[in-house]
Write a structure and sequence with these properties.
By secondary structure, the chain is mainly alpha-helical. Helix content is 78%, strand content 0%. It folds into two domains: 2-181 and 248-449, Up-down Bundle (Growth Hormone, Chain: A), CATH 1.20.1250.20; 192-247. The protein is built from 17 helices and no strands. Helix 13 packs parallel to helix 15 (354-377).
Length: 473
């Protein structure tokens, strides 16, 4: 049992990161009712976590290399547990959003260590077994999230979707202390503080501008100031990375066209596959009157289950196919799934979403694992950790930006429809059509520009984890 304690510890942390996203998505309408929160606040419940995770995961990896991965992982679990408790007892939406941002800090520290801990601990056949089980936990967590969130919200309270994290954190800490040895990089990493700060400001300001535009309009002074701040911070980030001798993101990696295209595709896939789910949950519960359990079954579980089936039944086979086809055609499947869902009217029920969610889930099952291994194969081995962190960062940014953009469209359509059921249906259809276009563009981009098959993406080097969003997150 002691031999597999590190695997159990890593799998428990991964389970937390992935389950927490879909659990929260299902609970959003209940949170809105409790706090009388508007759609802008609901977007920040998702985006607060996604942005802090995206901004810090690369820096957390450097700190883990320098100060120890076991120590960093334990610190991440502790922060995640404390922030979960703060979310559970939050007296208002502002406190909840702050707790979610802090959760992202803990999630970044945990995530940055998962693959490295497994890679350091296991070798040969055991390494393959460990990564295989860890990958299965990814799928199970994504599938369990909507059902668990619905059950907890409907039969207890939305606060329990955060409280349930606490015992899991305690068990994860116990297994980590019991079985995980400390490890550090031969040359400890250094935190790229200018890069981390400028990247965080750029991502947060641009996301705030997108969300603000939904309420105040695109010409609002605060909206324009947010965009200007974000663009300025982005320029400073690019400058800092080109001048730093220890950048958190080596920009020379983007000179390789396949790497750049696959990173962009990951961003677009995350937005197209997952960013409309919060608004689906609002429609299912606040318009159709479904409870949280039924909303999870209709609005999220079909996609997660289809993705899990693909990963479990065809994962090894897909790894042997050129990423041009797995990622490109997977994105086209996501596009078709989004389009199938975009046919909602005032007579529709939750079952209307299921066929499209299944098709989109098949695409997600193709895209997420193969894009990770393909990105790893496009960089030198010593840059695999940075490349995996970049992939996670852009996936989380895809989720955050997607929620912001879709939320702006959704809110405008509801306002135009004076809050009527037809307005909600129109708003959800509009977000799904934008998601369709996003996935279609990504699929075409990959099929046209990713022309060669990266060699031996998995066997030659340890795989990096999928981002903890809905795939995780």
């Amino acid at each position: 049992m002691r031999k597999w304690s590190p695997l159990i510890a890593v799998c428990l942390g991964t389970f937390l990161l992935l389950v927490d996203v879909l659990i929260v998505v299902v609970a959003l309408p209940a949170i809105s009712d409790d706090f009388h929160a508007d759609y802008t606040d609901l977007q920040w419940v998702i985006d607060g976590y996604a942005l802090s995770l995206a901004a810090l995961v690369l820096g957390a990896g450097s700190l883990a290399d320098r100060f120890g991965r076991r120590r960093t992982y334990l610190s991440g679990i502790g922060i995640f547990a404390i922030s979960s408790l703060l979310c559970a007892v939050a007296p208002n939406e502002q406190a909840l959003i702050a707790g979610r941002i802090l959760q992202g800090f803990g999630g970044a520290a945990m995530f940055a260590c998962t693959a490295a801990l497994l890679n350091f601990t296991y070798h040969g056949h055991d390494r393959g077994v460990a990564f295989g089980i860890w990958g299965a936990v990814n799928g199970v967590a994504a599938a369990a999230g909507p059902l668990a969130g619905g059950l907890l919200t409907e039969h207890f309270s939305w606060r329990w979707v955060f409280l349930v994290n606490l015992p899991i954190c305690l068990v994860a800490v116990w297994f980590t202390i019991r079985g995980v040895s400390e490890s550090q990089a031969p040359r400890g990493g250094r935190l790229d503080l200018p890069g981390t700060i400028s990247f965080t400001v750029a991502a947060a300001a641009l996301t705030y501008g997108l969300i603000r535009a939904g309420d105040a309009g695109w010409t609002d002074g605060v909206t324009l100031a947010a965009f200007a701040t974000g663009l300025l911070a982005l320029v400073l980030f690019l400058f800092a990375e080109t001048r730093s001798d220890h950048p958190m993101l080596d920009l020379t990696l983007f000179r390789r066209t396949p790497f750049t295209v696959l990173i962009v595709a990951a961003f677009l896939a995350q937005a197209a596959a997952f960013s409309y789910l919060p608004f689906s949950m609002i429609w299912l519960q606040q318009v159709l009157g479904n409870g949280p359990v039924d909303a999870g079954l209709y609005g999220a579980l079909p996609m997660a289950a289809a993705s899990l089936v693909v990963g479990a039944s065809a994962g090894r086979f897909l790894q042997r196919i050129a990423p041009r086809w797995t990622v490109g055609l997977g994105l086209l499947l996501i596009a078709v799934g989004d389009l199938l869902q975009a046919r909602i009217d005032t007579d529709s029920t939750g079952a209307t979403l299921i066929p499209g969610l299944i098709v989109a889930g098949l695409g997600v099952g193709c895209v997420l694992p193969t894009s990770a291994s393909a990105v790893m194969a496009e960089v030198p081995r010593e840059r695999s950790g940075m490349a995996g962190g970049a992939l996670t960062t852009f996936r989380q940014l895809g989720l955050a930006f997607g929620v912001a953009v879709f939320g702006t469209v959704f809110t405008n359509r509801i306002t135009g429809g004076h809050g009527s059921p037809a307005g909600f249906a129109d708003g959800l259809n509009a977000t799904l059509l934008i998601a369709f276009g996003t996935a279609l563009a990504g699929g075409i981009l990959v099929l046209v520009l990713v022309r060669k098959h990266a060699a031996a993406p998995v066997a030659a080097q340890a795989p990096e984890p999928a981002e903890p969003s809905l795939s995780a997150r």
